[in-house]
Amino acid sequence: PIDWCERNYDVHEHVTEFWNTVSSFLITLSGYICFMHQLLPQDKTHGLSTLLTYLLIGVIGIGSAYFHGTLSILGQVLDEVSILWLVLYSAILLIPKGKLVLLVEASKFRSVIVAFM
For labeling, which of 60, 69, 85, 91 is most exposed (least CB within 10 Å)? Predict the structure, then answer.
């Protein structure tokens, strides 16, 4: 794994990169708060795509916290793959609905989706 963010075990004996782990939990918290806010009855202006975006932001925070807390290979994979999921999902949201069907039918695009799942 990559080890370049901050000194290891500097603040807490059980958390490798303490401040990066704390900031990652804040990312998770912000994703959770935004997700829950979208579930309120008075805020139904967005939809499922917004809910999923906030959920993925929370997943990024969890993966990042695990990575910076442990500096394990699994943590690094969780951190990076969750970011790629959000990037891929955001790219899909930018494609007009009529064009998305054409892209999904293309074999190259299917292999990209399978690679990220």
Answer: 91
